[in-house]
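Moderator note: this is an archived Q&A kept for reference. The question asked for a predicted structure of one protein chain; the sequence and the answer are reproduced below.
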Amino acid sequence: MATLSDIGVSALINILSAVVFLLAFALLRIQPINDRVYFPKWYIKGERTSPRRRFGFVGKFVNLNLWTYLTFLNWMPQALLMSEEKLIEHAGFDSVVFLRIYTLGLRIFVPMTVLAILILVPVNISGDTVSFLRKELVTSNIDKLSISNVQPKSIKFFFHISMEYLFTFWTCLLLYLEYDKVASMRLEFLASQGRRVDQFTVLVRNVPQVSGRSVSDSVDYYFRKNHPSTYLCHQIVYNANRFARLVRRRNRIQNWLDYNQLRFERHPNKRPTRKKGFLGLCGGRVDSIDFYKKELAELDVRLTMERQRILKDKKSIVPVAFVSFNSRWGAAVCAQTQQSKNPILWLTSWAPEPRDVYWQNLAIPFVSLTIRKLVIGSLVFALIFFYMIPIAFVQSLANLDGLEKVAPFLRRVMELKFIKSFLQGFLPGLALKIFLYYLPGILVIMSKIEGYVSLSSIERKAASKYYYFMLVNVFLGSIVAGTAFQQLHAFIHQSPSQIPRTIGVSIPMKATFFITFIMVDGWAGIASEILRLKHLVIYQLKNIFLVKTERDREIAMYPGSVDFPETLPSLQLYFLLGLVYAVVTPILLPFILIFFALAYLVYRHQIINVYDQRYESAGAFWPHVHGRIILSLVISQLLLMGLLSTKEAAKSTPLLIILPVITWAFHKYCK
């Protein structure tokens, strides 16, 4: 188990890593050669066309203005200057709601941290249970600050119960105010957008085939008959995959034409040439500009013919349509009601905005959707239990003392103080971070296979899967596997009736592992986010070897959007850890606060200067975040009830029974 010295080693490593990342970012961002990596948002919006540079040719690559090196940390106050109203206009409503989750975390946990450290830590230190159990269980000095150190049947547990009530009511109050604020901001945002086409449009799927009628005629007849006063028009969806491939090919050829024209402008005395054979590697030489102009002309003819073929070919029409109405009320009635006696025909839902549509999934039949969701659900279930293996391995690293007692031959390797501190204080959090690196991408692919028709829905479903994975594996799995490794000696040699008591004492002790995880993921990990080292290297390599035109450079610098499938579940895990351990092991709360403060600063900078949101869902993910914070509250209450029951606090435990009921009733009220 990690001791105070192990936590100190981990804190030193992670603080140094975070400082190095932040300093490297502060210096790299002011170099002109990196301008498109650290400020792509301004290029995309057209407010910056080239890096600000001075001092001639060298100044194109290196910043030679000494004053900027003296003020290289000014990005921190600059990230906080833009108001919420301007930020909504600049980056979108989704980005602002995302940032408000971090400020919500700060408002919840700052008072909780102060009260928990001033009241609960002295109460926990005054006990002596950990010292008494040191011969039976693996403990550390940090455990004296937790509820594990309070004697069974102690009246001191009423302090913990009172704090749990106070923290629950405080969290619910802030959640209610935040829900009200987000809802009012959302209404203002939608009203400010004016009349957008997606606000009047419904997506209709599984349009039935009627003999003698085309899909377009069926849709028109059906909605004129059933929605005569509100129906306006419709647009059928076509399978234009071949057309899309031709468009992509045309863009590539256009790019080569632009490149060769630029070459000719730089050297007007020499026209560029190329071989006309396969990939330009064989055949006779021809004029490059004339060659690509001819290719473009031929492709334009093929595109025209392909467009005509698609419009005439009935097989190109898919049973899906976007139906528009003359009022929002008419669209709402259609989107939220069943349109046919057969529940799998004429399926309606609100149409995503144009940027949000995931076109590949529009034509999936209803039966196929059901099968896909069943298969993916089974795979996610299997994936959760498969990942128990690396989670158990990580916990074995975090609990070397427990392994030493069962396997004494490992003692020599782990007797070196620094190695032991490194293994227990830093490596477990890093190993867990590595094991989770590719998981969000895998879950996004699974959500796409499930058949959701919008990017926002795909990302919300992937985030939901990742959250429950984190809940089961990272939180509950770490506690169960960690307790098993940590108290392996006690489990083997004590009577079965004592095992619940051992688990009740051991769960608070897992705070040391979560502290190391927070420092690796929430401190160093967030600092590495702003450095964008991977994107920096990839952009510079593309800029050297692949970029030929300004269009290539725009593609190379494109930053993408905030990775909601990864960031939202990770953020909700920190709410869970804070709410669970606020009463159990309050010493974890300051580490949580540093994460929320640093992450808010970093992501505010990234949203202003870097990320370009692919779609706008008007904060559709907020109810999911609210629900999972409520779930975290309920989990914290149930765990405290179970923990007190192992402490033989029979008189105090019933006082907590009503708390989950009140919390869940509050959640239903908010919804």
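Archived answer notes: The first strand starts at residue 201 and ends at 205.
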